[in-house]
Design brief:
Elements lengths: L2 H7 L5 E5 L3 H9 L4 E4 L3 H4 L11 H13 L5 E5 L9 H13 L5 E5 L5 H9 L4 E6 L5 H4 L8 H17 L3 E5 L3 H10 L4 E4 L7 E4 L1 H5 L15 H18 L19
Parallel strand pairs: 1-2, 1-8, 2-3, 3-4, 4-5, 5-6, 6-7, 7-8
Helix pairs in contact: 2-4, 6-8, 8-9
The protein binds 3-methyl-2-oxobutanoic acid (KIV).
């Protein structure tokens, strides 16, 4: 799936997007027919044990993106650009984003956006690097904004709408809207021709994205706007306890898990 296919779906059929950070999960997500797989910098909290996304590095994102891309046949693979990998210096930003396509086989990059990413979006798009913009709650700014709802007053809502338009004009192929009022997300969706992908942004976006561990129920809890569609955590807990019990009681390994070679009986 390429940027043009995603654009073509805007307003036609709902677009599905999920995060994945490793090959086995990406394979399942791809087999389920999900349109886009986001290798989110949420890997920092979800998989690497950090309490924010800020420590995630470009190398880590390249490794996780490459693992996901190797296991994906159909979905579009999007690499999330981590904190300070863009925004300080344009040449560095282009190199970091380029690595995701050249080394890690991503199809596009996602940028947490603000006024500073409009020119970069234009430049990357012209260079052949499709850009997914991300507005609303952008967790890399947590020290400035907190991890709260965004766009909740008219001035802030207007800023998001204006930035959405500017990123569309700069060439972004889609826009993630995170934790903004549903009525603002609808306004933005109506104002743009590129698809909006909501997370905590109500039902009127062109598509939806969630974090895979919340969807499967592997994580301990979910964000208030998210939903567990399974209970993988309990399944894993049961499997791990059963394994420990089987080893402790001598039930495992059984005959069928072992092999014997007569010749090795004579080694002493
Ligand atoms: O990093 C991430 O997982 C994200 C999504 C929540 C949109 O940015």
């Amino acid at each position: 799936m390429r940027a043009k296919d995603i654009r073509a779906k805007a307003g036609e059929e709902p677009i599905t997007m999920l995060t994945a950070y490793d090959a086995p999960t990406a394979e399942l997500v791809d087999e389920a027919g999900i349109d886009m797989i986001l290798v989110g910098d949420s890997v920092g909290n979800v998989k690497l044990g950090h309490d924010s996304t800020l420590p995630v590095t470009v190398d880590q994102m390249a490794d996780h993106t490459a693992a996901v891309a190797r296991a994906t046949d159909d979905a579009m693979v999007i690499a999330d650009m981590p904190f300070l990998s863009i925004g300080a210096d344009e040449a560095d930003a282009i190199e970091n984003c380029g690595r995701m396509l050249k080394e890690a086989d991503a199809d596009a990059v996602k940028l947490e956006c603000g006024p500073h990413t409009v020119d970069l979006t234009r430049r990357l798009t012209r260079l052949g690097i499709p850009v997914q913009a991300h507005l609303g709650l952008t967790p890399q700014r947590e020290n400035e904004t907190g991890l709260f709802r965004q766009g909740t007053d008219p001035e802030a809502a207007r800023r998001i709408l204006d930035l959405a338009r500017e990123h569309e004009a700069a060439g972004a192929f889609s826009l993630v809207l995170e934790h903004v009022p549903a009525n603002l997300a609808k306004e933005v969706t109506d104002a743009l021709s590129i698809p909006t992908i909501g997370i905590g942004a109500g039902p009127d976006c062109d598509g939806q994205v969630l974090v895979i561990d919340e969807v499967t129920g592997l994580s301990e809890g979910t964000a208030p706007f998210s939903k567990a569609f399974g209970d993988v955590r309990s399944e894993m807990q049961e499997a791990i306890s059963s394994y420990a019990e089987a080893v402790e009681t001598g039930e495992f390994p059984a005959e069928e898990h072992s092999h014997y070679e007569e010749e090795v009986d004579d080694i002493y």
